[in-house]
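Deliverable D4.2, example record:
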Amino acid sequence: MTRKSEEEIKNVIQTYGNLLYRTACVILGNPHDVQDVLQEVLIKYMEKAPAFHDAEYEKSWLLKVTVNLCKDYLRFNKRHTYVNLEQAENVCASPEQMEILKEVISLPPKWKTVLLLHYVEGYQIREISHITGLSEGAVKKRLQRGREALKQKLSNFNL
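Output generated by the structure prediction step:
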């Protein structure tokens, strides 16, 4: 493990910044907490990141650190997630999408994390298992429970 150069840090921010931000935002829900976590991710990257064999390994490492720091942050603060839904309205194309977003945000972090990684970022179960440190069976079960919870919550909507 070697300290990263300024150029490597800039490259990581440009390449993975949006991915890491989206991931942390879904897990934490609060943009201020997200900024704190992302700063910690960059510090860990600067000080502790191993030599990466390829870009996919680097991406996986950064996601794993982000997810773990988010979990630590939630555990430490023991707060409920918060998203300014007025800001989210600008992103949603329809009122139905806004309702879906509200329901996803209200899910427990352990379900939101795997749902985000699978459906939004396109990771396979094996990859999610590696990123989160869970067994493949645990990832499958969390995906199942997250989908069931969303289905139950959204059954009242005409989508």
